[in-house]
Amino acid sequence: MSELYAVRRAQLRDRCAATGSTAALISRPANVRYLTGCTPPGAALLLGPGGPGGPGGDVLVCCRPLTGDPTEGRPADDVRVTVLPARDTDPVVAAAGLAAKAGAEVLAVEEHHLTVTRHRALSQVAPRMRLADLACAVEAQRLVKDDDEIACLRIAAEISDQALGELLESILVGRTERHLALELERRLVDHGADGPAFATSVATGPNSGRAGHLPTDRRVEEGDFLTVGLGANYRGYRCEIGRTFVIGTTPADWQIELYDLVFAAQKAGREALAPGVECHEVDRVTRHILETAGHGDGLGPWTGHGVGLEIDEDPQLSPGAMGKLDACVPVTVEPGVHIPGRGGVRIDDTLVVRPEADGGPELLTITTKELLAL
To answer: Could you give the CA distance from residue 273 to residue 360 in angstroms, rounded to a whole number?
Structure first.
């Protein structure tokens, strides 16, 4: 794995050199992990002048010793770890100081992640070193996933499917949304996750179908729609799954009609995923089915997004999205409809974009999308 991280850093270093930067400072946590395999809280990565063997080397600057916690990861062997002696010292500012001492003339920084205060501090610690904007260079590298990354996402999806499947076999009536969410997160860890990929959403009755609903003390009742959104974090990689069920009885006609509508929209979005397809086109075909049925006003700003080291990363599947899909890019397709006072439906899958010759989009989250009565 160390070789993989070295290759990633070399690609970034070449890009920096092409723009005249002799060193780079990475502060966004997901980008630090992508380039080193490790992301302690607050850590910063310095790609020093001359590469790993140069005067500064590649240094992970931390404000405390590494704990070995799986959620932090393990640093690549060729990355030097420096622990600051004072915990109130900013690793980002300290890393800039190291770059200046190593002779860097131009330091590329992630301006989109730096606060104004931090940016000023960098200028003060190294007044003779020019700061250049790295922009979203690392995020661009992260967009297309390699085999190891997709393997981690597959495992995260398997864990999520297992946790959800076990919950569906238990008694649900009378339990609160909050209790069910906590149980799901415990089951994720039991099956090998480092933790939840995001705050687990459980919504019942009139709450169902709301995007990102935070669980409350409302209890599950007979006849409710139950929408669940969860995902596992496995070795830093995060997936997402969302399903809707009916509790304890045969679904009502309006529930079947609404479910079939959202299912048709989600299916259209999944089938539209292919290399070369415009990102906004996937959103359009998904959204069009729901808008035609009169639910356009309540739709969210997007119908899907990329996943990886972050649960919400590029590409965005939205009306204003720019760019086209590439092969080996994992995305979600997650349309939903919420009817105020009644509830709603959300269906969410994580898939990997694949060409038709390879079988089309690879579905990672395989829990049934049949409308089950639990």
So the answer is: 8
> In the prediction, which pLDDT does 126 show?
86
- CB-based contact 221:173 (threshold 8 Å): yes
CA atoms within 13 A on the CB side of 265: 29
Q: For the chain, how are helix, strand and coil distributed in percent, rounded to 5?
A: 35, 20, 45
The alpha carbons of the chain give a radius of gyration, in whole angstroms, of: 23
Question: Which residues in the chain come in under a pLDDT of 70?
Answer: 1, 50-56
Confidence at residue 288, expressed as pLDDT on a 0 to 100 scale: 97
Strand, helix or coil for residue 52: coil
Tell which residue, 197, 192, 236, 232, has the closest CA to residue 73.
Answer: 236
Q: Residue 89 has what pLDDT?
A: 87
Is residue 258 classed as helix, strand or coil in its secondary structure?
Answer: helix
Query: Residue 221: its pLDDT value, please?
Result: 96
Contact (Cβ atoms closer than 8 angstroms) between residue 197 and residue 184 = no
Q: Residue 279, SS3?
A: helix
Q: For 317, phi and psi rounded to 5 degrees?
A: -100, 90
Read off φ and ψ for residue 188, nearest 5 degrees.
-60, -45
- Is 324 in contact with 277 (CB distance < 8 Å)? yes
The gap from C-alpha 130 to its chain's centroid, in whole angstroms, comes to 33
Could you give phi then psi for residue 128, rounded to 5 degrees? Answer: -90, -5
- Determine the longest span between alpha carbons in the chain, in angstroms: 72
Yes or no: say if 98 and 88 are a contact pair by the CB < 8 Å rule: no
Phi and psi based region of residue 37 (left: phi greater than 0; alpha: psi -120 to 50; beta: remaining): left
- In sequence order, the β-bridge partners of residue 330 are 352
- Strand extents, DSSP E, the chain: 23-26, 44-47, 58-62, 80-83, 106-109, 130-133, 195-196, 201-204, 225-230, 232-234, 237-238, 241-246, 304-306, 313-317, 330-333, 336-339, 343-346, 349-352, 362-363
- What phi and psi values does residue 198 have, to the nearest 5 degrees? -165, 175
